[in-house]
Specification:
Chain B: Tetramer of two alpha and two beta chains. Chain B: It catalyses: (1S,2R)-1-C-(indol-3-yl)glycerol 3-phosphate + L-serine = D-glyceraldehyde 3-phosphate + L-tryptophan + H2O. Chain B: One of its GO terms (cellular component) is cytosol. Chain B: Its EC number is 4.2.1.20. The structure holds 2 protein chains of 2 kinds. Helices cover about 40% and strands about 20% of the residues of chain A. Chain A is built from 16 helices and 14 strands. Chain A has helices spanning about 30-45, 50-65, 75-80, 100-110, 125-135, 145-150, 155-160, 175-190, 210-215, 220-230, 245-250, 280-285, 325-330, 340-355, 360-375, 395-400, and strands spanning about 20, 20-25, 70, 85, 115-120, 140-145, 165-170, 195, 235-240, 260-270, 285-290, 295-300, 335-340, 380-385. Chain A has a 6-stranded mixed β-sheet with strand order 3-4-14-9-10-13, sandwiched between helices. By secondary structure, chain B is α/β, with parallel strands linked by helices. Chain B has a single domain (about 5-260), classed as Aldolase class I (TIM Barrel, Alpha-Beta Barrel). Helix content of chain B is about 50%, strand content about 15%. Chain B contains 12 helices and 9 strands. In chain B, strands 5-4-3-2-1-9-8-7-6 form a 9-stranded parallel β-sheet. In chain B, helix 7 links the parallel strand 4 and strand 5 (about 150). Chain B starts with a helix and ends with a helix. The chains are: A alpha/beta, B alpha/beta. The interface of A and B includes residues 31, 298 and 300 of A.
């Protein structure tokens, strides 16, 4: 199948940035020339060995890659079914997968001569990663963060400030990730000549979805080699949590043309995917629309107005999803399910107690789905779940939900 | 020939520049918004730009963001926005109406259905901020086919190499965004704008109208003087946001129109 390029799932996007009907370049004219310039620069960098040599060096010595593939033995025993592995991207420098992508974009920004970096952040992990790499390279960094998220992710806000970034609380809309992205785009359109917008997920106008996927696919490339080494074969199921979908796309992409591998994306179900719309499950509860530069599945009302997402996890609190996921969903190559806040919290507790790993609330959604399916699967079934972030930042949220006073 | 084409032809005959006024449909609510729109032609407005509210107006500053929020909170919908135009057409069949907004509410409605309804309601042109020439197949080409003008934004970052692509499927007029930024932000200076307008006019026979950063009758006059007209949006929307009556808003708009018409 990998030799059959016509039927390959890895050939997208086309030259207009489309994955099927999804993706595209829905931005204002002011930004369009810059997006074309970025695309050109990225195409050059992609085939430039010195660019990837620099990335490999930074990934190894600065981020700490490769991240381990870890057999979760007690979790496996407890669930009594499939064999469960964690891809440990929470062990990366800055505590999540976000830095994989930030390094790539910052190197590109330097090639383009842009010395002011802006970013949006939800949970703060992408903001921290961007502030970190900006500190390392001596670049000015401005992070837009919803005022609501600034409140529930205080440790990360402080971290960004320590790293020298300016954190701007966004009060427009309801003050979450979507609104932070709007304000970042407003900044970009105003300061287009000296500013690089470092987008944290596989969304936005082309070439961002493909570019971020390429930088994150180090996760899946490593996991594949590690699984072959550990078990002598590919995993049967790979799974990851999805907000915008960057850690999932990074894990999934290198496996898209391996038909034996079942791919499951896990969206944030919030209080439950029903008519009250208290969730962020764009694929399960949304329909195609255009926002933030791309066409994808969106939570929206009958009149095309965008709805706010709702989740215990600030990192998944986004009413859209990367366009490549939308396409993988429609083609049926990947399946997408949702997990509620309550189920994610149970996974958080179990993982902490059984494995001595305090996971971020984002991957807890993927883990909760593993907890649902693993018991009914045979022992020889191999599951690889992306542990995309560590939970230090979430202990206050978790304490609140458990009714504990810190 | 659309109402927009006729409007510029008439203004040329009179030796006048076009004054374009932007208001958000449904701001602060349907009735008051309708009353304001109905008074605009008499206040001297040559072209009405009617904002289509959207939850995520990425190219707009706080003034217009808040106007959209007010409208949406008070129940404004695409259907009600079309209804305002129908009301206007009952008493005015001459003043062009350009709908300005973002693509998703239109995409959600269905492009063909929307175009038929817009045409029927009496809309003459569309300015859709997040549809650059690269996405012309989405709405621009179907709109022109349906007999609506598709008015493109040109910006300070639209260089000479790119300009032909921007102008290619544009009709009605070209909207030159005088600054890199969002609506209601920095002030535009005629001395900076003039060379850009001249550059665009060299490449097209269409009228060039300048918007963004024009807040006073004096600014309207000086900017209109170096172009075929000017747009004022946030300054008017601020008055509406401050709770002014339809008559007060119309009186303010009249001072801006006089400024532009002095040019």
């Amino acid at each position: 199948m990998p030799d059959d390029r016509i039927n390959s799932f890895t050939q997208g996007p086309d030259e207009t940035g489309r994955f099927g009907i999804f993706g595209g370049r829905f931005v204002s004219e002011t930004l369009m020339p810059l997006i074309l310039e970025l695309q050109e620069e990225y195409e050059k960098a992609k085939t430039d060995e010195s660019f990837w040599a620099q990335m490999d060096d930074l990934w190894e010595h600065y981020v700490g890659r490769p991240s381990p593939l870890y057999y979760a033995e007690r979790m496996t025993e407890h669930l009594g079914g499939a064999k469960i592995y964690f891809k440990r991207d929470e062990l990366n420098h800055t505590g999540a997968h976000k830095i994989n992508n930030v390094l790539g974009q910052i190197l590109l920004a330097r090639r383009m001569g842009k010395n002011r970096i802006i970013a949006e952040t939800g949970a703060g992990q992408h903001g921290v990663a961007t502030a970190t790499v900006c500190a390392k390279f001596g670049l000015k960094c401005v992070v837009y963060m919803g005022a609501h998220d600034v409140e529930r992710q205080k440790p990360n806000v402080f971290r960004m400030k320590l790293l020298g970034a300016e954190v701007i609380p966004v009060t427009s809309g309801r003050g979450t990730l979507k609104d932070a992205m709007n304000d970042a785009m407003r900044d970009w359109v105003t300061n287009v000549r000296d500013t690089f917008y470092c987008i944290g997920t596989v969304a936005g106008p082309h070439p961002y979805p493909a570019m971020v996927r390429d930088f994150q696919s180090i996760i899946g490339t490593e996991a594949k080699a590690q699984m072959l080494k550990a078990e002598g074969r590919l995993p049967d199921i790979i799974t990851a949590a999805i907000g915008g979908g960057s850690n999932a796309m990074g894990l999934f992409y290198p496996f898209l043309d391996d038909p034996s591998v079942r791919i499951i994306g896990v969206e944030a179900g919030g209080k439950g995917v029903d008519e009250t719309m208290q969730h962020c499950a764009s694929l399960t509860g949304g329909r195609p629309g255009v926002l933030h530069g791309n066409r994808t599945y969106l939570l929206q009302d009958d009149d095309g107005q965008i709805l706010e997402g709702f989740s215990i996890s600030a990192g998944l609190d986004y009413p859209g999803i990367g366009p490549e996921h939308a396409w993988l969903h429609d083609t049926g190559r990947a399946e997408y399910v949702s997990i509620t806040d309550k189920e994610a919290l149970e996974a958080f507790k179990l993982c902490t107690e059984l494995e001595g790993i305090i996971p971020a609330l984002e991957p807890c959604h993927a883990l909760a789905h593993v907890m649902k399916i693993a018991p009914d699967l045979p022992a020889e079934t191999l599951i690889c779940m992306n542990m995309c972030g560590r939970g230090d930042k979430d202990i206050f949220t978790v304490a609140k939900h458990l009714g504990v006073e810190l | 020939m659309t109402r927009i084409d006729s409007c510029f032809e008439r203004l040329r005959g009179e030796g006048k520049k076009a004054f374009v006024a932007y208001v958000m449909a449904g701001d602060p609510d349907y009735e008051r918004s309708r009353d304001i729109v109905l008074k605009l032609p008499e206040a001297g407005v040559d072209i009405i730009e009617l904002g289509l509210p959207f939850t995520d107006p990425m190219a707009d500053g706080p003034t217009i963001q808040r106007a959209g929020q007010r409208a949406l909170e008070n129940g404004q919908t695409l259907e009600k926005t079309l209804q305002i135009v129908r009301e206007l057409r009952k008493q005015d069949d001459r003043t062009p109406v350009v709908m300005m907004g973002y693509y998703n509410p239109i995409y959600s409605r269905g492009v063909d259905r929307f175009l038929a309804e817009a045409k029927e309601a009496g809309i003459d042109g569309l300015i859709i901020v997040d549809l650059p020439p690269e996405e012309d197949d989405e709405l621009c080409l179907p709109a022109q086919e349906a007999g609506l003008n598709f008015i493109r934004l040109a910006t300070p970052t639209t260089d000479s190499k790119r300009l032909p692509a921007v102008l290619k499927n544009t009709s009605g007029f070209v909207y030159y965004v005088s600054i890199t930024g969002i609506t209601g932000a920095a002030a535009a200076e005629a001395v900076d704008v003039a060379p850009d307008v001249a550059r665009i006019k060299e490449a097209t026979d269409l009228p060039v109208v300048v918007g963004f950063g024009i807040r006073s009758p004096e600014a309207a006059e000086s900017i209109a003087a170096v172009a075929d007209g000017c747009v004022v949006g946030s300054a008017i929307v601020s008055e509406i946001g401050a709770g002014k009556s339809a008559d007060e808003v119309a009186a303010f708009v009249a001072t801006l129109a006089e400024g532009a018409h002095r040019a």
